[in-house]
Amino acid sequence: MHQKEKDLIDILHRSKKWKTAKSLAAELNVSVRSIHNYLNRLKEQGDIRLASSSQGFRLLESNFTNEKSKEQNDIPSTPEERIKYLIILLATHYSDKNSPFDILDIGEELYVSESTIRLDLQKAKRAFTKNRISLKIEQNKFWIEGKEIDKRKMVSSILYSESSDHFMDISTLEAAFPNFEIYALSKEISTILENAKYFINDYAFMNLMLHIIIAVDRLHSGFPSIPINNDTNIPNDYKEIALKISASITKLLKITLDSNEIDQLSILLLVRATRFNPQEINLKDLHQIIDNQYIEFTKNVIQEIDDYFNIELNDEMFFVRLTLHINNLILRCKMKYSNRNPLLQNIKTSCPMIYEVGVLISKRIQEAFNVKLSEGEIAFITMHIGGEIENKKNYEDKIKCYLFFPEYNGLSFEVANRIKKIFAQECIILGVIHTEKALEKLTDFDLLITTTSITNKAIPYIQITPFLTNKDITILTNSINEMNESKEVNEFKNRLREIFSENLFKIDTRIDNYKEVIHCISRELYALSYVNSDYEAKVIEREEMSKTCFGSVALPHTIRLDAKKTGIYVWINPFGIDWDGEKVKLIFSLSIEYSDRYDFRNILNNLTKLLAQKNNVDKLINCKTYDEFFECLFSLLHNI
Known about the structure:
Distance between the termini: 55 Å
Radius of gyration: 31 Å
Strand content: 5-15%
Largest sheet: 5 strands, mixed
């Protein structure tokens, strides 16, 4: 069966009215004669049974109908699915006042009423408004209006939201745009950059490829090109690379970029590719290729992180890479470009404290250089510092251990040194003891690692062989990780008893706007002497940097922890609060005193881990009293 014949059956199957051969021909863009040929062939093959009259044709039965009925499962059925469908439809298909979409047609396609589609469109407006695009509705017609650059950014945003839990790669683009030779083009662009000795990381490269493919797809569909400001200064070497890439696009994707699109490509290369290999540059080189203001800024912000979070980030290679990143980031922001990060939500929920360090750095960048950073850019800063922070775990964070090993030819110290080397980031060996009597004098430690059995079973211990085998290392790894998590959770539970209070707990279904809720919480915290009068403004400032909500939970707080007293205000609205497009049902508003800033990491990490599980949230929002909530929260902490 040919595709046109399948399309013909599909039209007849969806139609509730008689269809003339002329109307079918117009919909399929074929001749009336072709329609009659299709119908005759389908009847002869036994694929369809038709009713015919002077009014046209109607489908009575089709072998293809069963196949189509299976596809009904893919048709958007919930309001959320329909709104997403409409947003993608408008963002990715050409429409304007002269060629709009029809509400009745879309309703028929989705098997819902006209009024339902109208309601869905009203809800979809928010997504377009956030992207500076207008959704227009007149009578039964609808379309979008706005700058082409904003429409392309929205398409990019949609594609990134589809890959929010993984790295977007070439195969992702190939699945989204199957008609283009994307793999071949990516290879040619990589070769062009490599021959020109320009460097680009994988994330920036995918941002570049996504821009190119979206641009080509829209140009193929009749959308206009994007002009740039005439005063934009583009270095000649970047223009030369853009021209070479443009030639590859013409060869492989069968479209010629005009001067506007080539200039756009040149700017993208300028803000994403660099002449310098970050792996080969040292501090001395940095002073020669980067303006001193960026070097001084990085020094100052690293010192602030040390003072504020007690985290030392003093490795030279880290300093060089972060400074280069900040330099390129500011250039991107000034030219109103930003890199999207598909791992944003994963980073926010799995590494909340590290993300807060990224937010602080981003805030300082915005203040110092008068630019605005996207959440994706904040996530890239977080990725830069995340590994370094993990390598700089504080003494207080590590499991404190003693090794009990009856001495034999110095073997005990050899094993101790191996443990120190393997578990340098997880534990500290406070000392080696050789007799069980010495155990009686040990204080302030978390774990005893022993090569022999001990009589005092009250001491937390792990027994290993004297040879530290691979099996021993696995046992130690699992035990240390469990102990670390248990230690954090126990500290968190003990702290919760101090900072939770019945007068900081509220169930309220009347307010459904997050700014109004933050206002009410801030007012009550101020009245109870937990915070200063500027707390509300600082919480909103933090929200504008990057939303603190995930799923149906929000953890609003300030960037700098300067409350008068540490506390957590819990607000429940089981019907949901509009949190800038998200539906939040449970709020933990944090007020943290500066002296408790080291507790902030434990509070934030454990709350995020607990609330990332939807079933935990469901249990908490169904609690009716403070006592019930507190008891439920503590019981759930046993399982995180």
